[in-house]
Input
Amino acid sequence: MGLSLENKVMATYGTAVVTLVCVVVFALVALIKLQTLAGLADHSRSVLAQVEIVEGLLDDGEIGALRALLLDHPSSALQHQKAGQRLLRSLEDLSHLVPPEDNASADLTRKAHADAIISDWNRIALVHLSQGARKALSVLNGPGTQSQSRLRDDLLALEDREENSLVSHLNEWESSFRHVLWAASGIALAAIAMLGIIYGLVRRDIARRHEASEQLRRSHQQLEARVGARTAALAEANNALTKEIEKHQQTEAKLRQLSASQDAALEDQRSHIAREIHDELGAALMGIKVQLNDHSNAAAAKSEELAKQPKQLMAELDAVMERVSHIATALRPSILDKLGVWEAIHWLVSDFEDRMHIACKLNFGELPQRVSKELATAVFRIVQETLTNVARHANASEVEIDVRIHAGELRLRVTDNGRGITEEEVMSIDSVGLVGMHERALHHGGAFHITGTPRKGTMVELRVPLAVC
Output
């Protein structure tokens, strides 16, 4: 994996910084050396200047003495004394400039020569004052003259040495200055190289980023095109699916309406058949029973044997009439239309308990005052179908029916303690009764739920808004 731009820049930066540090250190050393050489050169100049002062004082003293003697000025003796004092001070200043450890004996020698020169100047001045200029001229070339020559030689040697030292220091200073210039050039070149490398890296990275950005833009455009095409296809499929769902919903609504119409027609037909059976067939059977009763009375007047046969026929006829009444009630109980759904449910539960010998508990809470005929029929048939399923499949010993108004709804709940219906049985296409109950609830804007718990029983719940009632 290649280094990132930041890592490359940092590596280049580190190398450049190390190079710069080395060059700067070299430059600092050269600058320190330059400063030291400049100090040494200044010292040499100071020594040379002091030497020139001493030589000037020697020349002034010698020339002044000759002038005083030639012009015969006795007052020049005082000037010789002052010149000697200045010479001593100048030599002391020179001794301070030239370190004793470098030439201690030379310093002592200079002082001795100076003492001799000053003594000679004083002696000439005294002779001049006491004996005159001619006599002073005779002692002009005394011991001080030799000391003055030696002091001059010594000063010349010191001057030559300091001049050589100054030249050497200046040469070294020039060399060090070139080194500083080289170091400065190196720093500039290193900085330029560093900037060039960084510029190259940045430019290359910018080019790569631009290329990557361009590639990303093209990929984004391709992706947008694919997404657009896919979105269009999905939108088309979604529209088709929506239309299919709408058709399915319309078909389902029509089927539900047809089922409701069929249920209503079936209920009307059941009611009509039940009335026909109860009224027509019951009246016919009652007429037959009256005729048999008349024949039985007539036969009994003639013979007991003749009266037995009509009585047997009357007993069979009573059984037939009871069966006919049961069939008519099963088709549609007349109590549902006469007394209402709640009395019909009470009768249904009592009849179920008597026939199936299953304990039933019926709880009526607050109930709506009026219930439409269609909803009354639906509620009654749901309770009837539920009790039929309990008798056939639940293997239960207890059933509880609870009907009441709760949260703006009519709620019917039937629970048993049987084996519990399974999810497979609820979802089975063979559960026609459950499908019918569910459709009845949906037709009236309600909800139908059935749940089972293994070995604990089944619960059937119907919820219908009160507005439908």
